[in-house]
Amino acid sequence: MPMSVEATARLLAIQKKVLEGTDTLDDLQEGITLLRQDRVAASVAGTTSRTKRIAETKVVDPAAVLADLKSIGLNLSSGPIQGA
């Protein structure tokens, strides 16, 4: 989620003060707080996306896969595949 317009404007104002050399300790602390809030929001969004992706992952049944491979193998060893 992008930063709000107000937070972006405030961060740019703090950056301008830093470049001019007129910044205070309070300005720097506020800037760091704004940046941290943005990172926390990004972290939550990433965790939600990751959790959803894991939930959608299909479970593979090894026995079913092996049975399918054996069936294919039997069809190949018995001669040409019909309908191909």
Reconstruct the topology from this structure.
Blueprint: H1 5-20, H2 25-55, H3 62-77
Helix pairs in contact: 1-2
Describe the structure.
The protein is rod-shaped and about 85 Å long. The protein is 75% helix and 0% strand. The model has no long low-confidence stretch (mean pLDDT 80). It is mainly α and 84 residues long.
Characteristic key phrases:
3 helices, mainly alpha, 84 residues, 0% strand, rod-shaped
Average of per-residue pLDDT values = 80
Instruction: Give unreliable regions as ranges.
Output: none
Number of helices: 3
Silhouette: rod-shaped
Q: State the order of secondary-structure elements, H for helix, E for strand.
A: HHH
Radius of gyration: 29 Å
**Helix- and strand-based class?**
mainly alpha
Name the helicity range: over 70%
Number of strands: 0
Sheet with most strands:
none
Quick structural overview:
The protein is mostly helical.
